[in-house]
Design a protein that fits this description.
- The complex is a heterodimer of chains A (296) and B (246).
- Chain A starts with a helix and ends with a helix.
- Chain A has one domain (3-220).
- In chain A, strands 1-2 form a two-stranded antiparallel ribbon.
- The mean pLDDT of chain A is 93.
- In chain A, strand 1 (109-111) and strand 2 (114-116) form a beta hairpin.
- The longest helix of chain A has 27 residues, at 184-210.
- Chain A has 14 helices and two strands, in the order ααααββαααααααααα.
- In chain A, 73% of the residues lie in helices and 2% in strands.
- Chain B has two domains: 1-79 and 161-245, P-loop containing nucleotide triphosphate hydrolases (Rossmann fold); 91-160, no CATH class.
- In chain B, helix 3 (95-104) runs parallel beside helix 5, helix 4 (113-129) packs across helix 5 (145-158) and helix 5 (145-158) runs parallel beside helix 6.
- Classes of the chains: A mainly alpha (296), B alpha/beta (246).
- The interface between A and B is medium-sized, with 25 and 30 residues.
Chain lengths: 296, 246
Amino acid sequence: MDPYLVSVLSNIGLFSFLALSAWILLLGGEISFGQQAYFAIGAYAAGIASAVWAWPFTAAVLWGAVLGAGIGALIAWPAARFTGVHYAIATLAFAELTRAALNVFHYQRDVDGYLTGPDGANGFGDIRWVYEAGIEPGPYLAVIATLLLAVIALIGLAARLDVMAQLRMVGEDPILAAMQGVRVLRWKIGAAAAAGGLAGLGGGLYAHFATYVEPAQFSVMTGVHAVAYGLIGGLGTALGPILGVLIDIGLLESLRALAAYRMIVFGGLVAIILILRPRGLLDETLVAKVRAWARR
Amino acid sequence: MGASLDITGLTLRFGGVTALDGLDLSVASGTVLGVAGPNGSGKSSLINVLTGHYQANGKIALDGQPIEHLATSERARLGLVRTFQTPRVYRRMSVIDNMRVAVHATQAIFRGRSDRRHRDGRLRDDLAIFGLSHRADALPDALTPYELRLLELARAHATGATVVLLDEPSAGASEDEAHRLSRILIEHLMPGRTVLLVEHRLDMLRALCADLVVLRAGRKIAFGSPSAVLDSREIRTCLMGEPVDA
């Protein structure tokens, strides 16, 4: 496969984890501008585990996801008591704190004669496990795609077991949900843990794909994009945020003629879609219609 | 199926306004208690306190067990369910999904597929009882206000609630719709359940309630059988205003 295409598809896959992370919180009725923090936490944690501690890749990536989930739940425990704009600001503040902390985070150890590990604002390079294991970009893309499909399948299973429905209850009307017996705070914390875990998983995969990460990559704009993916792709199904990533990275960033105008076109696109379809292209109404049609 | 509901010394204040003022009430298991009163007398506050949406002083017991310290969701899990003056449903879910999530909210997540299918069949039966089968796959925005009311009642019925708090079920209904609602309540929702019926229509209160309590400024000013209570000229004046002489 064309190396450029492999790289674009890998990016689409990797940012799909971040988009799904923000989407889960959107279902629960909250906008988080801070999911890039968990992406960063997953990237740094998995990178340190494989590059500094010489853990195997699987354990390193899993560790990034677990840490993302744990910190997601920990932050949500106080933050989930906020709603709306207060929640958005709280998540944004946490993400900026994380980025600022990574800017002064030095943890370098001697690995085979080289100082390896995060070096503050200079970033964290030599996350080389995948390359040293001789895994080419093509097969690594297959790893990303497999994990993404597994996540989508898991979300599909959760939907069948009415887990997603309860989250949607909380998202649409938390007062009614509570009066129907839904433990709203637990669901919000659970959603934040799942979202943190997904972003952490994506971050760990990203660090091993890029081999180099730095705090500046995890800026507010990354988080804003993550939210926008769900909002333009649609909140009705897990395929919505992935459609959003496809539109942004697949279309705007990758078509070289458009690349220079990407932010302008993307911003305009978000505005137009939010006016015409406030819950995105694949919204709940469309999904309900498709379901009713499929049942016939 | 019903559970008794006992309220002792319930007091709720919003700043300087006293919405409920040391209210005592008892609803025996499986009976219907009507609640009437002018606007601002505390009827809706009472429902909001019972569900735990407002925190008030005083005691609330469900089947003898104190519940005033429980969160809203835990009270719902004990079978305490309410309807709203303006029907409240999930606008982004179809009618059948609204039924499904209400029933599943309190139940274990991990169930077999046949179990779920069986439940879906039962939910469609429930919709049929309330005359909504043809609307099962519609979104709530396509429903008339009366149909939304029926959906709320069908939902309360399907959850197997033991205590149902009805907040003005006839609000916005035509004369004919109010009659049909009364019949549905008597035939399907009320049997075996403990019901608190907040209502303005005196004919509905007469037809549906064993006992009637009249509130004014958060206090009980009358209690007894609906006919006895509503025979009092003073109470009728309180509820309907001064009669105008021709």
